[in-house]
Amino acid sequence: STAGQWVSRFEQELCARTGAAHAVAVTNGTVALRLALHLVGVSADDEVLLPPLSFVATANAVAHLGAVPHFVDVEAGSVGMDPTALSARLEAVAERREGGVFNRSTGRRLACVLPVHVFGHPARIQELRAVAEAWGLPLVEDAAEALGSWFDGTHCGLFGAVGTLSFNGNKLITTGGGGALLTNDTSLANRARHLSTTAKQPHPWAFFHDAVGWNDRLPNLNAALGVDQLEDLDRRLEAKRQLFQ
Ligand SMILES: *Cc1c(COP(=O)(O)O)cnc(C)c1O
Fold it and tell me: From the CA of 148, how far away is ligand 1's center (Å)?
């Protein structure tokens, strides 16, 4: 089932590998993104700022919440979202009003900045975070391809509110399908666990669910594979670096 000792162990080892205070293992990277966006308050008819250079799942996760992707271009150096383009875009369309930051041309709320660390190469995340902070927008990082990628002493996914990983077969490690949220925010991690396990209140026999939850947790069997795969991560990262050279 989705509750088991391998899930906890896999999460602990992800924390040890990334320096995250909390890891929450889920069924895939798309689900991890959808949950992360929901946790920072993205809801129907909001807009999320994201780069057009990514796998389709980044935009899909936005749409799964009924929100609308708002693309901001990438820059050549990092192939991640361009902080200058983000800043210029917000200056051009955004306005602060009661209830948040709004897109003047569509009337929709701008709810989140969602950069992607493409092919494990860190985006200019500190500059992107500075722009997001200046506008009071939460930062969620799609680090699906970036397990083992660090920038300035911090693992990708840990610069903003929450980051997400994927363990699909084409990623750094695989659980035969899986994903995770990384965060240093304890209350966000607790809400992620709660909402990904049907929002059931702990009780010996009664079934009380205090929100509309999801059944998103990684099965124990997949987590066991993940624990084994992590033992090979250093070798794989080294092989990737050699290929790059
Ligand atoms: C793989 C990937 C995802 C989605 O992960 P799945 O586990 O396939 O759902 C999201 N974003 C990026 C950038 C990816 O490469």
Answer: 16
- Name the residue of 37, 74, 121, 145 to mutate for ligand 1: max ligand atoms within 8 A of Cβ: 145
Q: Dump pLDDT digits (tens) for 157-202.
A: 999 999 999 999 999 999 999 999 999 999 999 999 999 999 999 9
Residue 3 has pLDDT above 90, yes or no: no
DSSP the chain: --SSHHHHHHHHHHHHHH--SEEEEES-HHHHHHHHHHHTT--TT-EEEE-SSS-THHHHHHHHTT-EEEE--B-TTTSSB-HHHHHHHHHHHEEEETTEEEETTT-PEEEEE--B-GGGPPP-HHHHHHHHHHTT--BEEE-TT-TT-EETTEETT-SSSEEEEE-STTSSS-SSS-EEEEES-HHHHHHHHHHHBTTBPP-SS---B-S---B-BPPHHHHHHHHHHHTTHHHHHHHHHHHH-
Protein residues with CB under 6 Å of any ligand 1 atom: 28-30, 54-55, 57-58, 116, 142, 144-145, 166, 168, 179
Nearest residue (CA) to ligand 1, atom 2: 144
